[in-house]
Specification:
The structure is a single chain. The protein has 297 residues and is of the alpha/beta class. It contains ten helices and 14 strands. The chain has two domains: 4-68, Orthogonal Bundle (Arc Repressor Mutant, subunit A); 89-297, D-Maltodextrin-Binding Protein, domain 2, CATH 3.40.190.290. A hairpin with a 4-residue loop joins strand 13 (288-289) and strand 14 (294-295).
Length: 297
C-alpha cells in the first residue's frame, strides 16, 4: 500500500534521477530504495522511470511527481498551521533566492521586528523555484529573472540597469558607457549557466551573433567581484551591487543597451496557505524602499 515514506523516497529519486545519490541523501540502502520504487510502480500500474542507460524520469513519472510533491507539501503546510495555532507562536518562514545580497536590508529589518520568527534561507536556481513553491517546500522566493509558470502570484520589487565591472586601470574603465559589440573578445568572469547574470550575458551576445569569452565561472558573487578587481577579466554587475556594504576595488561602467537590465520579483504559490510569518515577510519585502534601503514611510 502506498504510504508517505514511499512518496518521499520517490520525490528524492525523481529529483536526483540517481539511485545511489538518492539513497545517500535518504540514508537508506540502495537495494531497499530500488524495491520501494518498484512497489510504487507496481501499485500505480506503470513505470515511472526510463531505465535504458541512465535513470530518467519518464512522462508518467513527471506527471505523478507533481501530485506527490503537492501531497507532501500540503501535509507539511497542515502540520505547520497546526503548530502555529497550538503554540500561538511566531512560526517560521522559508525564503529562496538566487542571491541574498539584495535582501540583506529587508531581512535584517524583518528580524529586528519579528525576532522570534524562525527564518530559513534557501539558495535556489530560478528554474527550481516554481516547482518548490507549488510543492510548498518554500513559502516565498525572489528571482532576478522571470519565472514563467502557472500557479504563481508575484510582486515586482524593482528594476535596475546592469553594467560592466572592470578593474581599475582597464581601458574601458574611463568610459561613461560601452556597447555590447565593444565587449566582444573581452575576458569575462561570470556565473555558471542558469544564473541570471550568465543568462543575461549569453542573451545579449547571442542577439548580436556573438559568443562571450568566458575565462572563469563561479557561484560566488563575492569571488566574481574579487576576480574582476584583481584583473582577471570583466563581468556584468547589477547597479544594486554598487550600494552594497562590502565593495571591492573596481569600476562600474554603464552598458549602452536597453536590454541590459534585471527585474527583481517576489513570487509565492497562488494556492498556498501562507503562514502568518510568511505573510509578514512578504509585507516587509514588498514594502521595502529599494532606492533608499529603508522601509517605505
Amino acid at each position: 500500500m502506498m504510504d508517505l515514506n514511499m512518496l518521499r523516497q520517490f520525490v528524492v529519486v525523481a529529483r536526483l534521477e540517481h539511485l545511489s545519490r538518492a539513497a545517500d541523501e535518504l540514508r537508506v540502502a540502495q537495494p531497499s530504495l530500488s524495491r520501494t520504487i518498484g512497489r510504487l510502480e507496481s501499485e500505480l500500474g506503470a513505470p515511472l522511470f526510463d531505465r535504458s542507460g541512465r535513470l530518467r524520469l519518464n512522462e508518467t513519472g513527471r506527471l505523478f511527481r507533481g501530485y506527490a510533491e503537492r501531497c507532501l507539501g500540503e501535509l507539511d503546510a497542515g502540520r505547520r498551521a497546526v503548530a502555529e495555532a497550538v503554540s500561538e507562536g511566531a512560526g517560521s518562514v522559508r525564503l529562496a533566492s538566487e542571491t541574498f545580497l539584495t535582501l540583506t536590508g529587508p531581512l535584517a529589518a524583518f528580524k529586528r521586528e519579528h525576532p522570534d520568527v524562525e527564518v530559513g534561507l534557501h539558495w535556489t536556481p530560478a528554474e527550481e523555484m516554481a516547482r518548490r513553491l507549488r510543492a510548498q517546500e518554500i513559502d516565498l522566493c525572489v528571482a532576478s529573472q522571470p519565472i514563467h509558470a502557472d500557479g504563481l502570484e508575484s510582486a515586482r520589487l524593482f528594476d535596475e540597469p546592469v553594467g560592466v565591472g572592470t578593474p581599475v586601470g582597464h581601458p574601458l574603465a574611463e568610459r561613461a558607457a560601452v556597447s555590447i559589440d565593444e565587449l566582444a573578445g573581452q575576458p569575462f568572469v561570470t556565473a555558471r549557466p542558469g544564473h541570471w547574470i550568465r543568462r543575461l550575458l549569453d542573451r545579449l551576445f547571442a542577439a548580436r551573433g556573438l559568443t562571450p569569452k568566458i575565462v572563469c565561472e563561479s557561484d560566488e558573487p563575492s569571488a566574481i567581484a574579487e576576480l574582476i578587481s584583481a584583473g582577471l577579466g570583466i563581468g556584468l554587475v547589477p547597479a544594486f551591487a554598487r550600494r552594497a556594504a562590502v565593495r571591492t576595488a573596481g569600476v562600474w561602467v554603464a552598458v549602452d543597451s536597453p536590454d541590459c537590465r534585471r527585474t527583481v520579483t517576489l513570487y509565492w504559490g497562488a494556492d498556498s496557505h501562507l503562514s502568518t510569518a510568511a505573510r509578514l515577510m512578504r509585507g516587509t519585502i514588498t514594502g521595502w524602499d529599494w532606492g533608499t534601503g529603508e522601509p517605505h514611510a
